[in-house]
Amino acid sequence: MLFYSLLAALNGGIVTFSRLINSSLGSYVGSLKGSFINHVVGTLFATMLLLIGMGNGHFQFEGIPLYYFIGGMLGVFLVTFNNFAVPFIGAAAVAILMLFAQLLASSVIDHFGLLGAKVLLLSPFKLAGLGLLMLGSILVIKGKTTSKQNDG
Amino acid sequence: MFQSRDQILSLLASLAAGILLALMMQINASLGKIIGPLESSFVVHLVGTIFALLLILRHLNQDFARQIKKVPIKLYTCGFYGVVLVLIANVVVPHLGMVLSVAIVLTSSLVSSVLVDHIGLLQPQKHPMNPMRIMGLLCAIGGLILTLKG
After folding, report:
1. B57 — phi, psi (to 5°)?
2. Closest partner residue to B147 among A12, A24, A129, by Cβ?
3. Chain A residues whose beta carbon lies within 8 Å of the beta carbon of residue B17
4. What burial class does residue B99 get, using C-beta atoms within 10 Å of its C-beta: 0-12 exposed, 13-18 middle, 19+ buried?
5. Contact A151/B104, CB-based, under 8 Å?
6. ipTM entry
7. Contact B104 A38 (CB under 8 A)
């Protein structure tokens, strides 16, 4: 449990870092093309990792529900939705709304064991915790100020 | 009137994006349980490449080629992080579930964001820490602890 929690914490750091890199990339070519480049490089990298034997699974596609394969498509949709919304309501609002919906959807997925998840029932603690997390996120997002001085 | 209609659409789009993100994480993890977490990350990126390609097909022209040449090489590492991101999520989600996984990733990304903003990493400006952001981090950590207890 601790091991997986630490991995998840590591992923949080990677999320921040890759968000910045994708944002920089997007400033050169636009978000959608940036997403395309991201996916191309990712595909090549993943292929390389598999070829050197880093994978331990097998490409057996029999009996897998078709919708298990649409993850990549949803990711690209996400980028287009973001692109649409940010100019109208701002990045902060988009981030907050996204977070809220993500937490809500995650709760539903766990509680009902949807899409292949194991059932993990919600509890008052979890709901309170998520609420506090949401509040904390809003404070961090809204609290972002700009320094007047830039040391480069 | 026009402005507020687009704002409502933007609100809906943002909510939809959040839902998509959660769906995506669970779907990728479920695929990973069957074919392997790295294999799943591969499929995700492959499908994403094809789909993104379809969307940008009409923009694949000289302008794009020119833009690409200006991109600093180090920014192409985004793909590496993407693969690792999905890979780790595929390993973690089946064990911790979505709520816990998202809660930990979120808290960690908030902390790292505040730090990275403070030093102005990879950004044109610094965004120094302030009481509101620190308060937010404390709330988030408190929220995470509550969620863990749940």
Report:
1. -45, -45
2. A129
3. 77-78, 81-82, 85, 94, 98, 101
4. buried
5. no
6. 0.93
7. no
The tens place of each residue's pLDDT in chain B, 150 residues long, gives 456 899 999 999 999 999 999 999 999 999 999 999 999 999 999 999 999 999 999 888 888 888 888 899 999 999 999 999 999 999 999 999 999 999 999 999 999 999 999 999 888 889 999 999 999 999 999 999 999 998
Residue-wise over A51-67: b if at least 16 C-beta within 10 A, else e? eeeebebeeeeeeeeee
Closest CA to B96 of A9, A56, A98, A124: A9
Q: Do B77 and A114 touch (CB under 8 A)?
A: no
Chains A, B: CB pairs < 8 Å: 444
| Torsion angle (degrees, nearest 10) of CA B107, B104, A107, A111 | -160
Rounded to 5°, the CA angle A112-A85-A67 comes to 35
A144 exposure class (CB count in 10 Å sphere: 0-12, 13-18, 19+): middle
